[in-house]
Amino acid sequence: MRVVSGSAKGTVLEAPKGMTTRPTSDKAKEGVFSAIQCELGGARVLDIFAGSGGMGIEALSRGAASCVFVDIDNSALRCIRSNLAKTKLKGEVVRRDAIAFLNSCAVRFDIIFSDPPYNKGWTAKLLPLAAERLDDGGVLLCETDSAEPRPEPVEGLRLRKTYVYGRAVVTLFEKISEKGADAYEDSGLSGQL
Questions:
Q1: Contact, 92 vs 69, CB < 8 A?
Q2: Which sign, positive or negative, has the C-alpha torsion 11, 116, 130, 36?
Q3: DSSP one-letter code for 47
Q4: What tens digit of pLDDT does each residue of 111-136 get?
Q5: CATH superfamily label, 26-186
Q6: Has this prediction a pTM greater than 0.90?
Q7: Where are the domains of the chain?
């Protein structure tokens, strides 16, 4: 696992040992970041269930302004700190349960990465909370197992695209601006789709 592009390109990242963390493959990471490259410059990023921190670090390497890394596992947190030091990038590392963090966080983000343990039902719980933490036009990327039901949009989010990389499915949602949602409803199209 390495940083694919940007200021830390080629840096090999550590992953926590054991089966609790499953880093996103370089191929999946490259595809996902190609899809959101235009949104990265100056972005405020949240990486929940951060694991090794690979997604947030990739975002910082490619020009994101900041990243908050959230994980509950101590070995993952040590890994994130080590990877930030290796890449000479800065981020805030928080030991917290993802649900508790989203419930208590007052900050809004431009990009949120969510890569929870597969087949545990986390994504359905996280989507509404993450939608509240996104700025208008922000993006939420959820990684799930191909054997799980695909995540469905919740209020405030629209599905932009789904990517499949072997077992990993990455669903990209976009936050609908309240102004844009009102205009959409006023157009009379909302009931026709």
A1: yes
A2: positive
A3: E
A4: 999 999 888 888 889 999 999 999 99
A5: Vaccinia Virus protein VP39 (3.40.50.150)
A6: no
A7: 26-186
